[in-house]
Amino acid sequence: MTEQQTWSQRFESALHPAIARFNASINFDIQLIEYDLTGSQAHAKMLAHTGIISQAEGEQLVAGLEQIRQEYRQGKFHPGIEAEDVHFAVERRLVEIVGDLGKKLHTARSRNDQVGTDTRLYLRDQIQQIRNQLREFQLVLLDIAEQHVETLIPGYTHLQRAQPLSLAHHLLAYFHMAQRDWERLADVSRRVNISPLGCGALAGTTFPIDRHYTAQLLDFEGVYANSLDGVSDRDFAIEFLCAASLIMVHLSRLSEEVILWASEEFRFVTLKDSCATGSSIMPQKKNPDVPELVRGKTGRVFGHLQAMLVMMKGLPLAYNKDLQEDKEGLFDSVNTVKACLQAMTILLQEGLEFRKARLEQAVTEDFSNATDVADYLAARGVPFREAYNLVGKVVKTSIAAGKLLKDLSLEEWKQLHPAFAADIYEAISPRQVVAARNSYGGTGFAQVRQALVAARAQITAE
Ligand code: ARG
Questions:
Q1: What is the CATH T-level fold of the domain 112-148+156-206+224-362, as seen in this structure?
Q2: I need a surface site. Which of 272, 281, 371, 458 has the fewest CB within 10 A?
Q3: Which atom of ligand 1 approaches the CA of 111 most closely?
């Protein structure tokens, strides 16, 4: 222990230095300092408001805390390991600034409700930032989609050519995933935004505090109804990690597609130099490092979710030091999601070029119009299953003959079934195949145009 004793007089000797380092969280919870200061200012105001300390004392504490904020912002506040954590670091500095009065700040409070408050304020802020980033990501997706309503792209199931799509429709799928992420975070935020301040160490406090007052000052929507729950609940962080994991799932799936599309095998997109990297040995290489990193970083966020679940599952009520382990994974997840969203947004915005001619050609070189032949017959009274079997046979003989469906003569079509007429060629042209899927939510151009309008309206309305 340095000049100022952290613990009560019960302790006679200082911590072993290695144990002090092991115990300390200052290296990472310093990231909470702005929230800690804001939370402490609210607490000080409440102490004055309720008469637990005088108005003048309250004002001095608030001003002292504000000074620490300025010192921190100017890069002048560097608490060391001896402070243990951000809460002690702030309190110590406050005592240096305002003198013994600083020792009154912790009246009717514990680090347990304090750290819970800080973490919630931090996460509330970060969630808002991530939601804004999701909006930017969605806007870029929409901008690109609007340029590519008429661009066709092979659609896959099982990574086998299935049915051609409007590229806009494909991109809009990611828009909707991001929309759910955006909504999910809003929902998580409702439970992040509950104040544990005033729960004390675990049982409340003997002082006549006003928890609703601090909650209001800090813009919390409510207060925890049970003090034990308030200090030991980390559901809100787990929920955030679930939501963050799903964001990463979505980004990772898009990444995987971009990586495939950029390959020589697909050649659907060209990577622009601003977002691609080279190889140190193979001069011809242009690598999709951005989506690969996003895909790779996804595992970290899943890992943090798992770690938090396991950390929580055996904890008896109420606070246990295990809970200090909630922070690094949470911070890393927040930083990872933000970095990945930013990188993917930039990649979409300026790092990718869809190769229209290649895409146009790609949808003509396969049997992805086979369903439309079956639909053609089914629309003319042939039971679908019968039509399906018939077309299966045609596909088989065409493959054997080295032909595509469009290469069959009208004669051949009519031999297969008398219902075929000259309009079969139009019906199986890729553009018509896409246009015809005009069911609600389908890839038909008319549907996609409506979907684009609805999507834009959705994000501008909120
Ligand atoms: N650094 C601690 C944490 O992050 C603060 C709370 C400590 N509380 C306690 N009872 N030791 O969880």
A1: Fumarase C; Chain A, domain 2 (1.20.200)
A2: 281
A3: 6
